[in-house]
Amino acid sequence: EEAVFLRKKITLVRAFSLLIGSMVGSGIFISPKGVLENSGSVGFSLVVWFACGLLSMFGALCYAELGTRITKSGGHYIYILETLGPLPSFLFLWAEFFAIRPANSAVVSLAFGRYMLEPFFAPCAAPVPAVKLVSLLGYYAVLTLNSWSVTWSARLQMVLSIVKLLALALIIVPGMMLLAQGHTENFQDAFDRQSLVLDKLPLAFYAGMFAYSGWFQTSFVREELVRPERNIPLAVIVSVITVIVGYTLTNVSYYTVLGTQDVLASPAVAVSFVQRAFKSLISVVPVLVALSCFGTMNGGIFTFSRTLFVASREGQWPPLFSMIHIRRHTPLPAVMLMFPLVTAMVCIGDIYHLMNFFSFSRWLFIGLATLGLIVHRHRHPEQRSPFKVPLFVPVSFTIICLFTVAMSFYSDPVNISIGCAMVLSGFPVYYLIIHRQMSISSFFFPLSDYLTHKLQLLLEVVQQEIKTY
């Protein structure tokens, strides 16, 4: 009896919790090993962590301005579409669906499974099949919740954001106490240049930026935000500053307690930290870390489903995925679409190879999105944005992103080449379907209208009835 559309249910507090909940996840608990391994020393790794935070702030500010200029949801996809055109936006959508998002979700899911099982098998490593099974169960639970209710997904994100900050505090406090007592031996020769390998630095930045990734999440749900012109910039600035401070102190605590070799040898750095510093909490912290990863999975599913929803609405994805459940008011088909690819990547993937695999494509398109901000300013000088950053911010962020992407070919040519091939494979699909203005569903399925109708009845979904942008 009521109109079917996505409601504006994301307040400032929920936007803040979405950002914190997406950024503070598996990254800070698994990335320290990757950053240290590729930066070569404690001092350089801390510099990388701070630089990644600063770079994330630059990117977040660019996206905050884009979010006030472009009123549609969809994040990277819609920004590239509106500023650079349909070809690069479709290539992003293609790479995001088949590589970036499932690999990212698989990394977070595997971290969730590893930390959830760690207390039961310590001091031994948890069996890999058990880790993968628990990882999939966690992912499916979040998938079900996002299919059921936007409100409950947002509430869960708020609760888990508090859990995440508590988990960081339990690592920071004992480390700072030991540091205040004079335990600085692990910081001797912190900037050892002999172990620095410049061509590995892009991989160190990939690991660090993976930990910060999530600062762009409000841009995916722009149409569901309350007062977006005010709340997007405010939520972005507060959340990124909070995470930069938290991550820097967390890494200092890691090195104070563990040292270089222990961090490199640990498959789960936070667990090793607790074993050394806080044995009484040996079973608590891994569970908190697992819940942090759970929150990141929730935020990822919540936001990426909106990308597929908008892409379908723009005609670059099958029409079924722009439909909304008639009672739940959730984009049910878009939420459910990812689970086969994520399942496959969890079953066959390894965390660090997956991280390098999807990081290339992700940072390439984020760099293109901020390049689009520069283009949009040039094309529409008359448009007044309620939030505007100095020009050097998008220029410097874009240059750093594209330079890091180019350098990564020297650092990890195999995984980066696979990621590049995945992006390029979208070219023939675009020119066969989108460029010729064919229906993407008709191209793949001669009986697509019939199948869409049957699935629409089965899932109880219809097209959005009210324009929200």
TrEMBL record:
<feature type="transmembrane region" description="Helical">
    <location>
        <begin position="389"/>
        <end position="410"/>
    </location>
</feature>
<feature type="transmembrane region" description="Helical">
    <location>
        <begin position="12"/>
        <end position="30"/>
    </location>
</feature>
<dbReference type="InterPro" id="IPR002293">
    <property type="entry name" value="AA/rel_permease1"/>
</dbReference>
<feature type="transmembrane region" description="Helical">
    <location>
        <begin position="42"/>
        <end position="64"/>
    </location>
</feature>
<feature type="transmembrane region" description="Helical">
    <location>
        <begin position="360"/>
        <end position="377"/>
    </location>
</feature>
<feature type="transmembrane region" description="Helical">
    <location>
        <begin position="277"/>
        <end position="297"/>
    </location>
</feature>
<keyword id="KW-0472">Membrane</keyword>
<protein>
    <submittedName>
        <fullName>XCT protein</fullName>
    </submittedName>
</protein>
<dbReference type="InterPro" id="IPR050598">
    <property type="entry name" value="AminoAcid_Transporter"/>
</dbReference>
<feature type="transmembrane region" description="Helical">
    <location>
        <begin position="332"/>
        <end position="354"/>
    </location>
</feature>
<feature type="transmembrane region" description="Helical">
    <location>
        <begin position="76"/>
        <end position="100"/>
    </location>
</feature>
<feature type="transmembrane region" description="Helical">
    <location>
        <begin position="416"/>
        <end position="434"/>
    </location>
</feature>
<dbReference type="GO" id="GO:0015179">
    <property type="term" value="F:L-amino acid transmembrane transporter activity"/>
</dbReference>
<keyword id="KW-1133">Transmembrane helix</keyword>
<dbReference type="GO" id="GO:0016020">
    <property type="term" value="C:membrane"/>
</dbReference>
<dbReference type="Pfam" id="PF13520">
    <property type="entry name" value="AA_permease_2"/>
</dbReference>
<feature type="transmembrane region" description="Helical">
    <location>
        <begin position="233"/>
        <end position="257"/>
    </location>
</feature>
<feature type="transmembrane region" description="Helical">
    <location>
        <begin position="203"/>
        <end position="221"/>
    </location>
</feature>
<keyword id="KW-0812">Transmembrane</keyword>
<feature type="transmembrane region" description="Helical">
    <location>
        <begin position="162"/>
        <end position="183"/>
    </location>
</feature>
<feature type="transmembrane region" description="Helical">
    <location>
        <begin position="120"/>
        <end position="142"/>
    </location>
</feature>
